[in-house]
Specification:
Largest interface: A-B, 64 and 63 residues
Largest sheet of chain A: 6 strands, parallel
Shape of chain A: elongated
Helix content of chain A: 40-55%
Order of helices and strands of chain A: HHHHEHHEHEHEEHEHEHEHEHEHEE
Number of strands of chain A: 12
Structural class of chain A: alpha/beta
Strand content of chain A: 5-15%
Oligomer: homodimer
DNA sequence: CCTGGTGTCTGAACCGAGTAAGCGGGCCTC
DNA sequence: GAGGCCCGCTTACTCGGTTCAGACACCAGG
């Protein structure tokens, strides 16, 4: 099956290639009568401009890139990224953009992909996830001049705009809630410590705990996997004075934590309260259902995509903080039973 | 930052553009001495050929497409697709291909994306998931002549090669195992009935149950979401004569089912055995851990990608059945307690 | 009637690669 | 020593768009 080109349309409509290009792109230079005629022919032939030719001629490739660098094992179960991607695509589709997805085995390769995409002219811009403090990607992207939006806290995004929300505020809400329920020994099973948003949460957790006079508010670092979450929970719950509440940095680890508590014969929520950061259907399905910090992850994606496309179009865009995650109380948190 | 072109390399190496192209592509036409020199210059300038120009000139775009048409809510929690994509990308990266990912809100739009990708020359080939019987995508792809590989059972893939395994065999293994444990009333919470692989599983389930003389082996259809899985389980377990074992078509619904059983005060595995199709870390984390039909999903992805790239290269490829999912017995299945 | 401006359209250059055709020069053969 | 051939490289054209300079018509103003 042969694909129609603008030359075909030009011939069919009795005009030149240039006129067709102007008509299709809504540019001035053709009368509305001929524009109509050209568009009609294009529509009849079911024409779509070859994106390679268009990109080569200096227009946009209409593709943006996204790389993920987490082990596939944790990526698979964490609903976060799929929801994020869903949101990103929603906005991209709306503006006829496509998404190039790349899983990178390591940070170096992730960087290499950005470089390659740039030099191959594959993408008009990129989204950056899982930012660390002093992340080399930021500098490289700034140097390349490739439009980019960071999905993460703004304080590590350099001159790049970022789409994120105030994790500190959400953490305060969670811990204050636990304190209000009477909990004094609150622990946290945190995410990958090197990630910038983990650091923000850790700091907020420590500060609010100190402010509320809670006992040693310890954060156990993990790699976000269920296994490491289970290990961390086991460690916390087998201490001489165990915590009465634990905040988990993702839903998978919270599920694991719930299971460990059950395994150790510790009743949830009677003896242990659990909060998961990032709500997901699983949190609702379990018994007891998990109290969670809920946020509209898809909305982040939509927002980030919109910002990126604006940046690609040359519009200066500012960082934007969406609404922070808020607490959704469910069955896994309860007032502390004073024995 | 300006990107180097072959013209830059040609000037630098003191040869013509043509020679550079031949050298870079490993084609004959240049002596090994100049080839070395050209490659050295290209390497020094960190050159990567513009993919748009290359694709326009008739070479490959080095991109393949994949569309997903499931509601984001179920996509998010189901590890299947992320693992599949991980596998696909592993192989694609190895051959310097990129993946264009597209989530489609509806089947019609999914089809429209394939059409557009084709006419825009964006992709060299596509992967097709979630095939239904009489799926219109198969016919369209055959008509367009766009290389494609179906990730699904071969009997609905038309002339397109397919990468899948024998679901019927795995289903037989699961039901025979339950029967061997003494179960006579086995039910199934199935996936989306229109999907081809669901139909295969349903048929196999019915047949093996009949062969083993099990009582009315009913399959309750769902949309794969945890909620619908919970509903289906509730329905099954509140019947006058309830099943003593249930096979779930995905892990999320199995988790939901476990929770419902708990909610109804039905002990797992003492009073009810549960098997999940598709293993995932969650299955291992829960208490009791879930007996599952395990398969290497990433391997499917690798395989499908390899087949697709072969098809893109013009090599005729045959459908391939990988190793079927096999049973991994865990804590959620047990011998039936005869009261 | 001439000039200037505007609107519409054409022609051609260009993007950065791939590739067929052509062309010297060295080597082998008779 | 002439003819033929292959190797190594260049030249020029191609892909399908975008875009700019210019041609032409038409109209208003002086």
């Amino acid at each position: 099956m042969k694909r129609p080109t603008i030359a075909d349309i030009a011939r069919e409509a009795g005009v030149s290639k240039g006129a067709v290009s102007y008509a299709l792109n809504g540019q001035p230079g053709v009368s509305s009568a001929t524009r109509e005629r050209i568009l009609a022919v294009a529509d009849r032939l079911n024409f779509h401009a070859d994106s390679n030719a268009r990109a080569l001629a200096g227009a946009k490739a209409r593709v943006v890139g996204l790389t993920l660098q987490r082990p596939p094992s944790t990526l698979g179960i964490e609903p976060f990224f799929m929801e994020l991607i869903s949101g990103v695509e929603l906005e991209l589709s709306r503006q006829s953009y496509a998404l190039l997805l790349q899983m990178a085995p390591s940070r170096d390769e992730e960087l290499a992909f950005y470089r390659r995409w740039f030099s191959e002219g594959r993408v008009d811009g990129v989204l950056v996830c899982d930012v660390r403090t002093g992340d080399p990607r930021i500098a490289v992207l700034e140097e390349l001049g490739l439009p980019a939006v960071v999905i993460g806290p703004p304080d590590v995004s350099g001159r790049l705009p970022s789409a994120w929300s105030d994790d500190a505020q959400s953490m305060v809400e969670a811990v204050e809630y636990l304190a209000a329920l009477g909990h004094r020994r609150v622990a946290r099973v945190g995410g990958i410590p090197e990630l910038a948003h983990t650091a923000i949460r850790t700091r907020a957790f420590t500060e609010v705990s100190a402010r509320l006079g809670l006992a040693e508010a310890v954060t156990v670092p993990t790699d976000y996997s269920g296994e490491s979450g289970a290990r961390a929970t086991r460690r916390l719950l087998t201490q001489p004075t165990r915590p009465t509440a634990i905040v988990y940095d993702n839903d998978v680890m919270a599920v694991a934590g719930l299971t460990v508590a059950h395994e150790l014969g510790i009743a949830v929520p009677a003896e242990l309260s659990i909060i998961a950061w990032d709500d997901s259907p699983i949190c609702r399905l379990l018994h007891p259902s998990l109290t969670a910090l809920t946020r509209d992850i898809g909305a982040y994606g939509v927002h980030a995509a919109r910002m990126l496309l604006a940046a690609v179009a040359g519009t200066p865009v500012a960082s934007d903080h969406g609404t922070p995650a808020h607490l959704t109380p469910r069955g896994s948190t309860a007032r502390l039973q004073t024995p």
